[in-house]
Design a protein that fits this description.
Elements (H helix, E strand, L loop, with lengths): L1 H18 L3 H17 L4 H16 L7 H12 L6 H10 L9 H13 L4 H20 L3 H13 L7 H15 L2 H13 L3 H13 L18
Helix pairs in contact: 1-3, 1-5, 2-3, 5-7, 6-7, 7-8, 7-9, 9-10
Length: 227
């Protein structure tokens, strides 16, 4: 229980610092967690907490981790036979700094588990965040095959069809991937109607950082979905 509470507290803090774009606090927290990790070299959770904080810091600039850090995380995920809340939270918070194709087998396992088991709601919410983050990462890394793979898997497993927030994010990523401004505008409209202010803020952040032209200006060319 203590581990789960620590994890929830840490992820909430990391998310807030990310939303605030607060590099100073993220750097300070990452340094503190690194110091704790050094003091507790045999505690894998301390190491994971540090990597989660590092990944959040990297997320601000869409950086990837070193190969050694990526390999360490992949080795951990490889040994998971049944994904529990802790494992899902870890993947949610580090997927953006891993070369996205390397997460393919683990996301596939998670979706199979979702389809064949009654996941607790907290776990389903975390899986939603994994998928949202993985779609963003695949688009940033320009791994079109993985993006298509992930969208096909979500459709195949009818993932979380009743969650309006997840479906809004899904529509946004499909619009970005297909270069379809109508879908992006529709995602904005839904998020606005549902008062999803944080979601709207993150839409804006992604479009700004990636220098994506505003979908609210008429293009001189038609929207052309990727084949």
């Amino acid at each position: 229980m203590e581990k789960k509470n620590n994890l929830k507290t840490l992820t909430a803090v990391l998310n807030q610092y990310y939303q605030d774009n607060d590099r100073q606090k993220l750097n300070q927290l990452t340094q503190l967690l690194q110091n704790d990790m050094i003091k507790n070299p045999n505690d894998p959770f301390m190491r994971h907490y540090y990597l989660m904080s590092l990944s959040t810091l990297y997320h601000l600039d869409f950086l990837v981790a070193s190969i050694d850090d990526q390999n360490e995380l992949i080795d951990y995920f490889f040994n998971i036979s049944y994904w529990q809340f802790y494992d899902l939270c870890l993947l949610e918070n580090v997927v953006n700094m891993i070369h996205v194709e390397r997460s393919t087998p683990y996301i596939s396992d998670i979706l199979k588990q979702y389809a064949t088991n009654n996941m607790p709601m907290a776990s389903v919410e975390t899986v939603s965040k994994i998928l949202i983050n993985a779609l963003e990462t695949s688009i940033i890394q320009r791994k079109d095959d993985f993006t298509r793979y992930l969208l096909d898997k979500v459709k195949k497993y009818k993932f979380n069809t009743d969650d309006f927030k997840f479906q809004t994010w899904l529509l946004f990523w499909i619009g970005v991937f297909e270069n379809n401004n109508n879908k992006i505008r529709h995602a904005y409209s839904i998020a606005t109607y549902l008062h999803q202010n944080i979601t709207l803020k993150n839409f804006d952040k992604f479009l700004t950082i990636t220098q994506t032209p505003s979908p609210f200006f008429e293009d001189t060319k038609k929207d052309t979905p990727k084949s």
